[in-house]
Each structure stands twice: as structure tokens, then as C-alpha cells.
Fold this sequence. Notes:
single chain, alpha/beta, four-stranded parallel beta sheet, 13 helices, globular
Amino acid sequence: MLRSLVGSEMCIRDRKTTLQTMALAMRMLRCRVPIITARTSSTAALTIENMNPRIKKAEYAVRGELVIKAGQYDAALEAGEKLPFSDIIYCNIGNPHSVGQVPLTFHRQVLALCMYPNLMENEQAMTGFPADAVARAKEILDGTGGHGLGAYSHSKGVESVRNTVAAFIENRDGYPTDPELLFLTNGASDGVGKWMDMLISSSNDGMLIPIPQYPLYSSGLTLRDGVAVPYYLDEANEWGMSVESLQQALDSARAEGTAVKALVVINPGNPTGQLLTYENMAGILEFCAKESIVLFADEVYQTNNYTDDRVWHSFRKVMLD
């Protein structure tokens, strides 16, 4: 419960922030456990000194020192302090709405109707909702068996939604997709965390991760006492990756005693934006099969194609081809 309140991505370097967040969570839970304090106390159940060292070691740079400093500048500007600039644009994470992108209305319309179905019984209110949004909301609600979105669902996710996702993947890749093999998670980060929980069983277990990378992987491994095995993308070659470099990184890690269990590939790249060729992907799949390691295919940005000469393919399609 505490984890869900604090957040599964609580990879915070700033001690003050950690203390405030955990104290808030404890109050919300109405715990009678002494709240953590910065000072070592014989009566404190949890202190900076005795807390999980992996929490203190984990770093999440996109929400780290630069962002904290930017927040201080923001507060100074709001207080009327004169600085060499008048506003701050936060570019540390993909947050398009904060820089003016207009939200997609369809998703919000459907969600509003699903969360408050009584709207669909109000003729005046319904004048603000297009027919396709109403139809989708009814389809989703029907798929919950009349329980609505407030009820617990199957551990894999609502069956009707899994069927919709399966149809999307089948249409995308051109191969049949079994919805029983799909697990819906609370965002991609939550799914990655669950996979890491299954794979990392000792401090000798590791994963190959790209550099540059989104810090979800390095921080996630730190939290689970796993080993981050870096492989470096080639900037001179459009941030490409080669099987040769993967082999070198794998062999080196194994020589040091690391049991490499998985390879993370982010395609399209984050933050580099590169798009892998079909041939490159086929070689990576052969590498994983030969070395008996799991492929983590991070394909969250599959619609973000900034190249004129390449087409995005899923690893699933390339594998089945």
C-alpha cells in the first residue's frame, strides 16, 4: 500500500523530498509508526541510516537536481524576483501539454462518460459529446459486465479491453494475437518493473541496457540490486546498435560473473529517436536466441518516426516473419 501511495517510480535522490513523501504517505495510512526523521533517533522506526540503501542509491536524472533547481527558479519568479529570464520551459521529460499541445479530446470524452455514466442519461449534457465517443464508452462499460470502471478486474486486465488490444496488434503485425497472452499494466513503467521483479533474483543478475537510455532501466535495476550492463549506441551511425557491440558487452559481463538475463532495446530510441532497420532487428533476435536471454522490446514510441527512409516494425512481427 505504501508503495502505491509513494509511487512505483520513487527513485529520488533528494533526502528532504523522500522524507516529506514518506511522512505524507504514513499520515494518509493513519499509521502509528513513528514518522521518519533526518536525525538518528533511538525511538524512530525508520531513519535515513537504516532505510533500504538501494532507495538512496537509485537515481532518476530526469527528475533530479536540474529539475529541482528549475523549480526554485520558478518559485522565485512567482515571488517577483528579477532573473535574467521571465519563464522556464521544462524539457526534462516528455510533457507536451506543459508546452502548449492541445489535449486529444476523444480520450477525455470517453473517460468522462465511463467514469460518470449518468451523463449519458442527460440529454442536455449529451449535446457536448460526439456519437463515436458515446459508442466507445458504452462498449467499454458493457465489457465490464455491468460493474463499471470502479470495480476490480481480472489480473490481466478487463477481457474486452484485452480483446481490443489484441485486434490492434494483429492488424499491426499481420499475425494472429491471443488476448490470453496479454497483460495490461498501469503504464509501460509498471510493466517493466514487473518483468524486472521476475528476472532479477540475485545481485549477480543483470540486464543489457542502452546508453543513452531512459533512466527507468538503470534505476529499476538499482532498486532490485541488479547489474546494469551498458552497451553504447553509435552516434556517428545515427545512434545505431550492432550485434558485435552487444556480444562484447555480454562476454565482458559474463567474464566478471554477471548472469545477464535480458537485453533492453528501445525502438524508436528514447532519448535518441533512432529507428532500427528490419535487418538489424532480425540480427538482435538471433543474438537473444543464441545467448538464451530475454528481449525487452520497449516500443512505446512506435508512432514517432522522424525518418524518411525507414518503416517501423515491431520485434514481434520480425520474429514471426
